[in-house]
Amino acid sequence: MNALQRRPKLIATDLDGTIVAHYGKISQRTRDAFHAAHEVGIEIFYVTGRPPRWMPEIADAFSFGQSICGNGALHYDIHNQKVLEEWLMPVDAQIETINRLRLAIPNISFAVEWHNYFHREKEYVPRWDVGLDNVGVHDITEIIESPALKILARLSNQELSSDEMLAIAKRELEGVASVTHSNSHDSLLEINANGISKGATLSKLAERIGITAEESVSFGDNPNDFTMLAWAGRSWAMADGHPEGAQHAKFVAEPHIEDGVAKVIEELLELPE
Predict the structure, then answer these.
(1) Whole-angstrom Cα distance, residue 3 to residue 253?
(2) Separation between Cα atoms, residue 215 and residue 271, nearest integer Å
(3) What are phi and psi of 65, to 5 degrees?
(4) Strand, coil or helix: 228
(5) What is the CATH number of domain 91-193?
(6) pLDDT averaged per 10 residues in sequence order, the chain, 273 residues
(7) 3-87+197-268 has which fold?
(8) End-to-end Cα separation, the chain, in angstroms
């Protein structure tokens, strides 16, 4: 019997739109499924685009597991609120990224994310971090002085979709930075240091604890999850996620609002060790 027919040794899951509903709730069935997996010794990784400051609710919901934040930029201990390792975006790459995208996508504006804060341009209209930077600057490059978790690039008037922006940015930023998005309707890109992604960091951390891709499963719903879905021996894209998800995953899970991930985990726990 090969690893793909056995209970996994590692479960990696995206959060928002995968196990966290868009209104912020994690169902009891989902909590129970992850708890049962943890109880039989399965390693749990919460792999998210979120910065550390958005992780307390996950720590409250789950008393176990490791976290990868910022789309692969941080290995983060959510229970002790401690950065364990980081792969940040250098200053020169930040400046080069911003300059290239300004030329390629008219009206684009930027914010820069650090561990526990972010700064934005005046034209950048925040959706989640309202109140963190109420002033903004005219040109974000004026205040970039240190490596960053990630750059956020937005079209505040939604002239292009996130998918359309991503197609342009991938071409413009090849060899400079890694770019993705986590919401098709938000006209927002998320940009990391070159080579950094959820899949790359998850692979690195799994290897350190002696677990292979074949012994791992992953769940996700959007392009920032695709590298992680492609890496794991068994992976599930959410049925209510990005339409291209199924091209990168091995299977499709029921919608997140119907406890799709929990249902798969319940079945996986029935497999032999």
Answers:
(1) 20
(2) 13
(3) 100, 160
(4) helix
(5) 3.30.1240.10
(6) 90 97 90 98 97 94 97 97 97 98 97 87 78 79 95 94 98 98 93 98 98 98 98 98 97 97 98 92
(7) Rossmann fold (3.40.50)
(8) 10
